[in-house]
Design brief:
alpha+beta, four-stranded mixed β-sheet, three-stranded antiparallel β-sheet, binds S-adenosylmethionine, zinc ion binding, zinc, H3K4_H4K5_MeTrfase, Suppressor of anucleate metulae protein B, zinc-finger
Length: 555
């Protein structure tokens, strides 16, 4: 047992110690053999303190596949997803009848998918026999008994991932052991002191680590596929990798968080808030695609988060979810007005919003520092930080009602501190209103929002966002939203034409980012064909209408 405690040091024990521990970055040994793919290699990153990174060995054009894996070393579902999502292909089957019906009416897979739980452990589920059998052969046989133990609470995805890797390595059917050992030299296991750092940055992650360390008498230990004491460093390494280096996965159709993936090659790609590549999740294939031209020798940088969020929100999300302070070129410039285009000048707040902001400073006192660039910010800057804290509070609150959401939008836009064109809180908040049922009071803002969003999507190569908004626009074209539809038409936004704009955009651009046989590309293509077959206008006529609508918005 004592060896386990070395891994899960109590937070207070290390508070005053020097945290020389870095969660990831390490110097690459000169003779190390890197995971390679034809066009990329793993090398030391030029980003300060970022450790190793993925580099192009050849030049890539926009849209080209830079690196891919058919399946990451581990893919693990969130605890909440274990019984409604296939553990192999990660396709969710909606369980809420209304969501199911709506999704089915849009041809989305979560409206049709049925998953059945494994009869051995009843802890994971599959959407088909094919998925189940592939999963069993590759990995589930190593974890089924371990996780089925009665009274054992569901284990966090990182811990389940580590159990699977260890099981596979012990049996080693694919001669993975030597390969993984080599990779291990590149992925430091971390120092136990680092647990206090994890505790500081993400309490939940710390608790998740603890679930590996079951109290004496727990049956978990006896079912572990590998002896704790004989190979502690391997266990530590597996756990650190799956907990701290995994990529967070969410559904491409609706953004629902699904789980995590860890893979030595894909997980070597560092983050940038100004990425040159994107990680595409094609259930379960993972591909890194170039977003712009990448020259041979350039570092391949993907974004782990939404890169158009404001500086401090990006920093906060990266610290909390990925436990590092971003050193990318965009963040190194800081959160000034140039890079945070959506902020107006803090001194220009008018009286009404200054009063409101002063109240919000008191309400968000404990969170304010997260939204400030430094400790000695001016009062004016504090007001903006408080307003930002309020907007993100409403955005992240599942219980927030329409009234609250509208007030937050009014504050953002009315104060002239945010613009409609960025994918930050302001853009997402109105979407929530539409989803909540909508009203016509904000139709002016709504038309502004949808049309600008369309331009934003089409200019910024945002296929997934375009898909999300197109499904929303489709819903708004239905009879339940007649009033809003008519109101928008008065303001010059014909939603149905706009919907065609999205469809054409998706039809043209999806194959550049997704493989044509991927679930996402299949759904967008089927939707396109069905809709086009059902209209009396020719494609050329429809495209002219879309263009005319577009001309109306252009500045
Ligand atoms: C998925 S791993 C990427 C590979 C990693 N650089 C390594 O050496 O193993 C993510 C980790 O890389 C580092 N990292 C990635 N992007 C970074 C950035 N923009 N700034 C600072 N550190 C970064 C952080 O330590 C982060 O936890």
């Amino acid at each position: 047992m004592h060896t386990q405690n070395a891994l899960v040091a109590q937070p207070n024990e290390h508070r005053d110690q020097d945290h020389s521990y870095r969660l990831i970055p390490s110097k690459i040994p000169a003779n190390a053999k890197m995971p390679t793919d034809n066009g990329v290699e793993v090398k030391q990153s030029q980003m300060p303190g970022a450790g190793k990174g993925l580099f192009a060995r050849v030049t890539f054009s926009p849209g080209e596949i830079v690196a891919s894996v058919d399946r990451p070393l581990v893919t693990e579902l969130e605890i909440d997803r274990m019984l409604d999502t296939c553990a192999w292909c990660c396709q969710r089957g909606a369980t809420d009848p209304i969501e199911r019906k709506t999704a089915a009416s849009m041809g989305l897979p979560h409206g049709f998918t049925e998953v059945k739980s494994c009869t051995g452990c009843h802890r994971v589920a599959y959407c088909s026999r094919t998925c189940q059998s592939k999963a069993w052969k590759r990995e589930h046989k190593y974890e089924c008994k371990v996780i089925s133990v009665e009274d054992l609470p569901p284990l966090p995805p990182g811990v389940r991932g580590a159990i699977k890797i260890l099981g596979r390595l012990k049996a080693d059917p694919d001669n993975e052991f030597i390969h993984v050992r080599k990779i291990m030299s590149l992925w430091p296991a971390g120092d136990p002191n680092g647990m206090s750092e994890i505790y500081r940055l993400n309490k939940k992650r710390f608790d998740d680590f603890q679930s590996w360390d079951k109290p004496p008498g727990s049956t978990l230990e006896s079912h572990m596929p590998m002896d704790w004491t004989s190979d502690l460093s391997l266990e530590k390494w597996c756990l650190m990798c799956t907990m701290n280096n995994a990529i967070i996965l969410s559904s491409v159709f609706d953004g629902v968080p699904l789980g995590i993936a860890f893979d030595p090659l894909i997980s070597s790609a560092n983050h940038s808030c100004d990425p040159n590549a994107v990680l595409v999740f094609n259930q379960p294939r993972h591909e890194i695609r170039a977003l712009r031209k990448i020259k041979a020798g350039e570092e391949i940088l993907i974004s782990y988060i939404e890169p158009t969020n404001p500086f401090n929100v990006r920093q906060m999300q990266l610290e909390e979810n990925y436990l590092f302070t971003c050193q990318c070129t965009k963040c190194l410039k800081g959160g000034n007005l140039e890079t945070d285009e959506f902020l107006g000048h803090p001194e220009n707040l008018d009286d009404e919003y200054r009063k409101l902001a002063d109240k919000l400073i008191a309400r968000h006192e404990s969170k304010l520092s997260k939204f400030l660039m430094s400790d000695n910010e001016s009062e004016a800057q504090k007001r903006l930080a408080a307003m930002e804290a309020e907007a993100y509070d409403v955005l992240e609150n599942d219980q927030a009602g329409t009234g609250e959401t509208k007030e937050a939008i009014e504050m953002c836009i009315g104060s002239k501190m945010w613009s409609w064109t960025y994918h930050n809180s302001v853009v997402v908040l109105p979407r929530n209103i539409f989803i909540q049922g909508s009203s016509t009071r904000h139709s002016g803002s709504a038309s502004n929002y949808i049309s600008r969003y369309f331009l934003h999507c089409t200019r910024k190569n945002r296929v997934i966002n375009a898909w999300a908004v197109s499904t929303l626009v489709n819903v708004l074209c239905g009879t339940a939203h007649k009033e809003l539809y008519q109101e928008l038409a008065k303001g010059g936004v014909q939603l149905r034409v706009l919907y065609f704009g999205f469809l054409f955009y998706l039809h043209d651009h999806t194959p550049r980012i997704f493989r044509s046989d991927s679930p996402f590309a299949r759904v967008t293509e089927i939707t396109y064909k069905q809709i086009i077959a059902g209209v009396t206008y020719s494609e050329t006529e429809l495209k002219e209408k879309v263009q005319a609508l577009g001309r109306h918005w252009r500045p």
